[in-house]
Amino acid sequence: MALTKQRANEIVAAMRDVTIVVLGDVMLDEFVWGDVTRISPEAPVPVVDIRRESVHLGGAANVLSNLIALGAKACVVGVVGNDAAGNRLRTSVREASPLQAEEHLVIDESRPSTVKTRIIAHSQLVVRADRELRTPVNGHTEERIIGTLKEAIKNADAFVVSDYDKGVVTPRILKEILPLAYERVPVLIDPKIRNLPSYRPATLVTPNHHEALRMTNTEEDSDGGLHHAARLLRQTLSCDAVLITRGDRGMILLEGDGEPVYVETAAREVYDVTGAGDTVIATLAAALASGSSMLEAANLANHAAGIVVGKVGTATASAEELIASFQ
Ligand SMILES: Nc1ncnc2c1ncn2[C@@H]1O[C@H](COP(=O)(O)OP(=O)(O)OP(=O)(O)O)[C@@H](O)[C@H]1O
Ligand SMILES: [Mg+2]
Questions:
Q1: CA–CA separation, 271 vs 52, rounded Å?
Q2: What does the pLDDT average to over 57-71?
Q3: I need a labelling partner for 139 at 20 to 30 A (CA). Which of 110, 121, 157, 226 fits?
């Protein structure tokens, strides 16, 4: 059952009036672009002459970018270190979103900000260097996050957990916040295996197919295997619905005790699939907060992901692009 352009238009227009709160691991994606003309005399490695550098919001901060691009109001709650990347992140998210307040990104002196640096020469990735600490945040930081979230969710129309397993999403935070959020608004979770038992209560959980198989000890990456994984996940978490994303094979949505439904990919050209998962959860959250059904939200998310995989670099889909993608 396809979504009509008129209905897509209606839902996307309503996104302007919703507020989404995101909890998760914020990251900075740093890109260094250059050329290689020689090999280093020190070791057999290429020397990259830097031509250009750029930074993008990554992880949970990319979910924020995607929400803003769709026209929603949003803020992201997370942790940064007391370092240059942390300052950069705090400035960038505040520039991206008027709703973002100073206290939403907690500064933890004992951690570095998460940064992924990619060095690219002649359009090819030469190396990626990561700076991160993946241990869970300490009790004091947990308390500050919980306090900030309790305030933030009072004004939310949906709550998103964007867990990249970098230590911000802890069982204790989930235990305190999910029941409060679920009582009021749709709760959407982009999960990682470590916190699986703690993602409850939730409205919608959105693993990719690799994650869904591992979380349920399912072997087969087939329709049957993924139906089984979706059912098992829903049982384990008692969540309302599970959406498994399958890269170029689209998505599978399981709602309640119903039959799994397929959502075929809407992508025409594929250049860069980085961040497609962030676009999916952002669009789902904005759509559900705007009163869409689960299946309508999945259709919109699939269209939005189809747009971003056709762009290079961590990208977003705008409300206009999303509407235009419906015939
Ligand atoms: N190669 C592709 N061709 C077409 N569509 C794609 C492709 N890769 C991703 N998509 C679209 O993006 C959605 C999410 O992608 P995917 O399943 O790779 O999520 P993910 O692994 O969580 O991504 P991320 O790397 O951002 O975490 C898919 O359901 C599909 O709509
Ligand atoms: Mg993902």
A1: 21
A2: 98
A3: 157
